[in-house]
Amino acid sequence: MNPLMAPTTSPLADAAASAPHGLETRPSAAPRPAEPTPLADARVQLAEAVELLGYTDGLHQMLATPRRELSVAVPLRMDNGESRLYLGYRVQHNFSRGPAKGGLRYAPNVNLDEVRALAMWMTWKCALLDVPYGGAKGGVAIDPRQHSMAELERVTRRYTSEILPIIGPERDIPAPDIGTDEQTMAWMMDTYSVNSGYTVPGIVTGKPIALGGSLGRASATSRGVTHIALAALRHAGFEPARSTAAVQGFGKVGADAARFLAEAGVRVTAVSDQYGAVLNTGGLDIEALTDHVRETGSVVGFPGADALDGADLLTQDVDLLVPAAVEGVLHEGNAADVLAKVIVEGANGPTTPTADRILRERGVLVVPDILANAGGVIVSYFEWVQANQAYWWRADEVESRLEERMLNAWRHVLGYAEARDLSLRTAATALAVERVAEAHRLRGLYP
Ligand code: NAD
Predict the structure, then answer these.
(1) Which class for 277: exposed (0-12), middle (13-18), buried (19 or more C-beta within 10 A)?
(2) Per the omega criterion (within 30 degrees of 0), is the bond before 99 cis?
(3) Chain centroid to CA 12: how far?
(4) Which residue spans within 95-151 are E strands per DSSP?
(5) Choosing from 101, 125, 137, 252, which is the catalytic residue?
(6) Is 137 part of the annotated catalytic residue set?
(7) Which of 15, 36, 316, 387 is positioned for an S-S bond with 246, CB 3.0–4.6 A?
């Protein structure tokens, strides 16, 4: 096939269509108690940092409240001529330190509160890693696996048009998240550029390399997760080459994290996705598993492993657990059963505050999302810098700068936490919040 010809269905739709018969999305954690939500979790984390820092109620409110929110209707003309309506959101939590930055999620259960939580975490992540951005997030409540490539293109272009007034390379720069990929970013960039009358590569990150994407962006989050996981394992007294790991989620973050961990000598024994999990106590062959997922759309049925209930992945007897799927999977109902001694959060918000407390009491080292999965936004920043300058870096330059920033942040957070006897999450959040508040103070309150 001509590589320039667009396929007629999306890779996600392909994967779903070719998934083994009878596969259904299954919860991969014991059901979480009904409340609280990711937004409530994010607010509890902020409140702990604010209390530690001794900030006023006024400043607390400012930090807790998004600066700007947009809800949009996204009508879609289906391939069969019918029309459907989806709801979309873009939340800009803070811009005190620079343009807002954050991913775009396509998932059926996306809602405004979830997007608010994800936007707030982006603000802290960017501040913690000292990239000159505020935080944002976007989402459309759509299941991309149920749509053709042409339908996804129309949804993406319409959503982009609807949020056009508030995005821009100096305002708010989207990137991929759950259910979106570099093709989604290419459509966003094109829609924005056509409406601007010239090409604007800095409007999104996570673009294809051919459109000004950065070398190393696609695997950056997973590389960052791996740098932190290896450092955290060593800190907790484990030699990575003699350690075991379980990874929840086998998408853009989880699959490469499992691969890089295995390359570093860690025995990855269990992996899951939304359809189920697989286990091989001798170590999974991640390359063969990746081929299996490419062919079938799921880890389920991988011949080199036994089947495992998705919920049981989180309580495997391993040294390292990497949740790399969705929010709230570690909660008060299962935190006491987690056997891993180190948890490195590839996903955003996988651990509720109650689970955090239980895990800390049990001596489990939890490396929070805003540190552990920041590799993506670091290389997104590198991509934006390269696009704005039209000057491209080598892959080894990108990777060494990523590693340096991740490990500097790790040492900084660890030192701050140890000096004050804090969890890594409270330390990381406090450090980040302090930077945002400082920018806010220096700029002053207008008018
Ligand atoms: P993705 O859509 O590429 O992959 C998601 C994976 O999680 C898939 O394998 C899916 O089957 C699985 N999954 C979904 N629901 C599940 C469930 N309930 N139980 C188990 N598995 C489930 O998404 P991604 O980009 O890999 O994002 C995963 C997480 O990482 C999200 O929390 C996202 O916000 C976060 N994150 C992503 C990036 C990035 O650069 N893509 C950066 C930072 C953080």
Answers:
(1) buried
(2) no
(3) 17
(4) 100-106, 134-140
(5) 137
(6) yes
(7) 316
Residue entry with tokens 């019918």 = 82
Domain boundaries, the chain: 11-201, 220-372
What's the confidence (pLDDT) of residue 16?
A: 39
Listing from the earlier edge strand, what are the strands of the sheet with 134-140?
68-77, 83-94, 134-140, 100-106, 172-176
> Which homologous superfamily is 11-201 in?
Leucine Dehydrogenase, chain A, domain 1 (3.40.50.10860)
User: 297-345 pLDDT, tens per residue?
Assistant: 999 999 999 999 999 999 999 999 999 999 999 999 999 999 999 999 9
**Which CATH number, 3.40.50.410, 3.30.930.10, 3.40.1390.10, 3.40.50.720, labels domain 220-372?**
3.40.50.720
- CA nearest 355: which of 379, 330, 372, 373? 330
CA 293, chain centre distance (Å): 20
The tokens 């495997």 sit on which residue?
Answer: 316
Tell which one of 253, 259, 292, 334 to mutate to probe ligand 1, the residue whose CB is within 8 A of the most ligand atoms. Answer: 253
Question: Residues near ligand 1 with C-beta < 6 Å?
Answer: 27-28, 176-179, 221, 248-254, 272-274, 310, 324-326, 346-348, 373, 376
Q: How does 223-262 read in b/e, with b if 16+ C-beta sit within 10 Å? A: bbbbbbbbbbbeeeebebeebbbbbbbbbbbbbbbbbbbb
Supply the pLDDT for residue 36: 73
Same fold, 11-201 and 220-372: yes
d(CA 188, CA 164): 10
Spacing, Cα 54 to ligand 1 middle (Å): 35
**In the chain, which stretches have pLDDT less than 50?**
1-21, 27
Among 416, 429, 329, residue whose Cα is nearest residue 47: 429
